[in-house]
Amino acid sequence: MEHKSTGLKRIVLGITGGVAAYKAAELARLLVKRGLDVQVVMTQAASHFIGAATFQAITGHPVFADLWDERVDNGMAHIDLSRGADAILVAPASADFLAKLAQGRADDLLTTLCLARDCPLLAAPAMNRQMWESPATQRNLARLAEDEIAMLGPASGEQACGETGFGRMLEPEHLVDDLEAYFQPKRLKGVKVLMTAGPTYEAIDAVRGITNRSSGKMGYALARAALEAGAEVTLVTGPTGMATPEGAQVQHVVSAQQMLEAVEVRIGEADIFIAVAAVADYYVLNPSENKIKKDAHILTLELAPNPDILANVTAKAAPPFCVGFAAESENLEEYAELKRKRKHLPLIVANDVKEAIGSDSVQLILLDDAGRHVLEQADKRTQARRLIEHIARLYNARRP
Ligand code: C5P
Q1: Contact 212, 356 (CB under 8 A)
Q2: From CA 170, how far away is CA 184, in angstroms rounded?
Q3: How far is ligand 1, taken at its centre, from the CA of residue 188, in Å?
Q4: Pocket-testing residue among 310, 321, 344, ligand 1, by greatest number of atoms within 8 A of Cβ
Q5: What angle do CA 379, 385, 390 make, to 5 degrees?
Q6: Cβ contact 104:115 at 8 Å
Q7: What's the gap in Å between 279 CA and the centre of ligand 1?
Q8: Domains plus CATH for the chain?
Q9: Each residue of 330-373: pLDDT tens digit?
C-alpha cells in the first residue's frame, strides 16, 4: 500500500531513550493507519521506556535494536533496513542521539542506519528544557540543519521533569501532519502566492459591525497547502482568531477597504492570487465614532457597495493567475460560472454555502476553461492540497 498524498511506502521509525517513547506507540499506530509500512528500530535506552512487543504488535514487524542481529542474513542490518526505506523518522530523538547524528557517529544500529541512509531523515526532539537550550544542543542542531536533517518541533509546554518550556515532543497527530507536509510535492517551488481569507468587518459604531460567518478555515488550509508545495505565501486576512500558518507572511485587516489596500500594495509581486475571503458586499456610510445609544426610533443604516478586490486585480494590465471562490446557496454551478466569466478568472471554486461555512468537511467543484472537476467531500486540509495541485497544474501549463 502507498500513502495517498506523499507517495511514501516504507518508513523506519527510530525510537531513542526518553519518556516520550511511550507516545511513539501511538505514532506507529497512526502511521500504519495512513497506509505506511512501518519498521521500528529502537536504541538500548528506548527499551527502558517501552517494550518492543508493543511495536511488533502495532506494525506487524519484528523490532530491530542490535547491529549484530542474527535475523539479517547478510549481517548488515543497517544497510538492509535503510535501503528499503523511503524515509527515517526518529521520534523521540534524545539530546544524545542528536549529538551523535551531528558528529556522524555509528555506534549502534539506529545511528549506523541513519549514516548509511539514502532517504530523507526527520527527527522529533524530546528533552528537558535546559538540555534543549544548552549551547551544545543548539550547536548540534545548527550542524544538523546544514546536513538537511529536518527537525519536527519540539513544542513548548509542561515536561515530565516538572519544568515548563521548549523540549516537549510534538504530539503524534502533529508529527504525522508534519511528516505529510514535508513530503508534499513541491509543485509551486519559489512561486509567490497572495491570498485573501476570512470575513471582513464593517463598523457600524465603536463596538458594533457587519460581518459574516466565514471561519477562515478554507483560506488558512489553502495557505498551508501552498506553503507545503514550496510557495512563498502572503496571506491578507480578516478577523478569524485562527493560528498563523507557519512560514506565511500575514497581514491582518478588518474592513474590505483595508483588504483592498493590503492587496494593492502586494499584487505587483504575486504570481498567483487566490481570493478566498468572504468580503462584505457593503460598508456602513458614516459609522459613528461612539457607541450609538438605544432609543425608541427606527434606526436606518446607509450602506454603500464595497470595492470588488478580485475584479480590481483581474482588470489590471498584466494580472497574476487569479482564482476566485463562489459560495452559493442555490444554482451553484450556474452562478459560479457566471462569476468566473464576469471576473475573467481562469478558475473558480464553487461550494455550497450551507455546507461550507464553518464546517470541517466540504465538496468543491472547480470550474475552468476545460470544464468542471469535482473534488469529492473531504476535510478542508485534503481539499486544500487537491486544489493547490489543480492550481499548480494550470499555472505551470501557462508558464513560458
Ligand atoms: O462575493 P462574490 O460571490 O462575488 O465572491 C466571488 C469571489 O470574489 C471570491 O473569490 C471573493 O473573495 C472575491 N471578492 C472580492 N471582493 C469583493 C467581493 C468578492 O475579492 N468585494
Answers
A1: no
A2: 20
A3: 24
A4: 310
A5: 125
A6: yes
A7: 6
A8: 3-182 (3.40.50.1950), 192-398 (3.40.50.10300)
A9: 999 999 999 999 999 999 999 998 776 667 789 999 999 999 99
Of 238, 169, 154, 167, the residue nearest 201 (C-alpha): 238
Q: Look at residue 307 in the predicted model and tell me its pLDDT.
A: 97
Would you state the pLDDT for residue 73? 66
Percent of the chain exceeding pLDDT 70 equals: 96
Q: Which residues of the chain have pLDDT under 50?
A: none
Which pLDDT does position 158 carry in this prediction? 85
Q: Three cell numbers at 128?
A: 528537558
Q: Could you tell me the pTM of the whole model? A: 0.89
Cα atoms in the Cβ-side hemisphere of radius 13 Å centred on 263: 33
pLDDT value at residue 81: 80
CB 279 less than 6 A from any atom of ligand 1 = yes
Give me the active site residues, please. Answer: 161
Task: Write phi, then psi, for 104 (nearest 5 degrees).
Answer: 70, 30
Ligand 1 centre distance from Cα of residue 278 (Å): 6
Distance 243 CA to ligand 1 centre (A): 23
Q: Which of 273, 325, 333, 351 to mutate to test the pocket of ligand 1 (most atoms within 8 A of CB)?
A: 325
User: Does ligand 1 have an atom closer than 6 angstroms to the CB of 326?
Assistant: yes
Residue 39 and residue 56: Cα distance in Å, rounded? Answer: 9
User: What amino acid is encoded at 167 in this protein?
Assistant: G
Buried b / exposed e along 22-61 (16+ C-beta atoms within 10 A): ebbbebbbbbbebebbbbbbbbebbeebbebebbeebbee
Range list of β-strands (E), the chain = 10-15, 37-42, 87-93, 121-125, 150-151, 155-158, 164-168, 192-197, 202-203, 209-210, 232-237, 249-252, 272-275, 282-284, 303-305, 321-328, 347-352, 361-368, 371-379
